[in-house]
């Protein structure tokens, strides 16, 4: 681990601790015990035992449900990170998730005669393709017409939200739940309420895919020419262009892959953790993924750890509310504090770097001298006086 990664790890840990401390102050002001409240969050996710359990439930069943809930966030945060590596900001993840979930639902989710393995594979492929299509459109608009990806992705969020809501309410509504009709068990990416030893577990197939995707994205970014090109485009498009990198292809393809990951997040949410779609609602997962991405430094392994933490707060909030007598929105306050602290990471990293430079002035002077020598050589080589025997 290089020095910058070590610095970021320190800053990230401090950010989380300060956020939890600030959340504890809020809970104290409300007259509750913050330690008990935070412990309730762990209990709600199956990471700590509850005092008692209902029929067919245990700590492990709670943990399996938490893993099922955690899975879409991994994909959503990877989606955000991939776009950020190319210098793009995909704020349309929730809309891409909704689009992918809806298209997979109406094409495969309601098919009665498909065998389970075929249906599940089709759900993932169709969801990935749908998300990729939306992401590629955003990238194309950015490259071809220089339309800011934040604006276009926000607009597409609302377009998806209202068009899909219209079709659900007109053709696919469940009159009782007022949501879309439930999909078939064959198409669902979670083996729901599987009886094992008298306990009923939710076993998510998507979690295995999420772990694979994490390490595939890391490999692509760190070990391939394409990953280097994407990062070069994100750091400086002008320099990347003069280096021979196809910037337009990088912009469109990075947004397409970001959309693909968002699409898989959508099917693991709407056809995995849930089995229906609520009209006129954009889920918060796509927006919370930004906090996870920032907290994880846009690195796949960091995202895996950060998403684990953030989803504990989100998933455990209902149980905390029932046991500690706190509103579940307190969990959103803590998540917001973490996001705020994560947004300040660049500032603290800069200060740490400057402090280290002051501690090691010899290294800084050597770096400056090397830079000056390189620049001087380049000037001599490119100077019109070079070749005339004159010193420049």
Tell me what you see in this structure.
The protein has 2 domains: 1-45 and 328-365, no CATH class; 55-315, Orthogonal Bundle (ABC transporter involved in vitamin B12 uptake, BtuC), CATH 1.10.3470. The model is unreliable at 370-392 (pLDDT under 50). With 392 residues, the chain is mostly helical. The chain contains 16 helices and 2 strands.
Number of helices: 16
Strand order of the largest sheet: 1-2
- CATH C-level name of the largest domain: Mainly Alpha
CATH topology of the largest domain: ABC transporter involved in vitamin B12 uptake, BtuC
How far from one another are the termini?
A: 42 Å
Q: What's the count of strands?
A: 2
| Total number of domains | 2
Largest beta sheet, briefly? Answer: 2 strands, antiparallel
Short descriptors:
392 residues, 2 strands, ABC transporter involved in vitamin B12 uptake, BtuC, disordered C terminus, 16 helices
């Amino acid at each position: 681990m290089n020095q910058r990664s070590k610095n970021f790890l320190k800053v990230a840990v401090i950010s989380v601790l300060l956020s939890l401390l600030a959340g504890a102050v809020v809970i104290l002001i409300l007259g509750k015990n913050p330690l008990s409240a935070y412990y309730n969050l762990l209990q709600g996710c199956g990471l700590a035992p509850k005092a008692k359990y209902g029929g067919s439930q245990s700590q492990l069943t709670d943990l399996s449900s938490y893993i099922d809930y955690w899975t879409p966030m991994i994909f959503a945060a990877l989606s955000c990170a991939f776009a950020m590596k190319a210098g793009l900001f995909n704020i349309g993840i929730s809309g891409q998730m909704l689009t992918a979930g809806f298209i997979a639902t109406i094409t495969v989710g309601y098919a009665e005669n498909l065998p389970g393995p075929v249906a599940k594979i089709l759900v993932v492929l169709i969801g990935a393709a749908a998300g990729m299509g939306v992401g590629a459109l955003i990238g194309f608009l950015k490259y071809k017409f220089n339309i800011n990806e934040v604006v276009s992705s926000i607009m597409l969020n609302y377009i998806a939200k209202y068009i899909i809501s219209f079709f659900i309410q007109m053709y696919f509504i469940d009159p009782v739940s007022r949501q879309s009709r439930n999909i078939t068990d064959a198409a669902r990416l979670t083996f729901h309420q599987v009886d094992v030893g008298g306990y009923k577990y939710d076993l998510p197939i998507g979690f295995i895919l999420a772990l694979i995707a994490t390490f595939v994205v890391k490999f692509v970014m760190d070990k391939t020419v394409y990953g280097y090109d994407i990062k070069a485009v994100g750091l400086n498009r002008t320099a990347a262009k003069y280096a021979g990198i196809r910037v337009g292809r990088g912009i469109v393809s990075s947004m397409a892959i970001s959309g693909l990951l968002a699409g898989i997040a959508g099917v693991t949410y709407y056809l995995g953790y849930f089995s229906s779609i609520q009209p006129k609602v954009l889920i918060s997962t796509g927006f919370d993924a930004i906090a996870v991405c920032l907290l994880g430094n846009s690195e796949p392994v960091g995202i895996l750890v950060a998403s684990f933490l953030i989803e504990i707060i989100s998933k455990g909030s209902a149980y905390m509310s029932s046991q500690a007598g706190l509103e579940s929105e307190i969990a959103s306050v803590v998540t917001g504090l973490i996001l705020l602290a994560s947004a300040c990471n660049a500032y603290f990293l800069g200060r740490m770097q400057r402090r280290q430079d002051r501690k090691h002035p010899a290294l800084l002077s050597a770096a400056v001298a090397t830079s000056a020598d390189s620049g001087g050589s380049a000037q001599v080589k490119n100077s019109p006086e070079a070749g005339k025997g004159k010193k420049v």
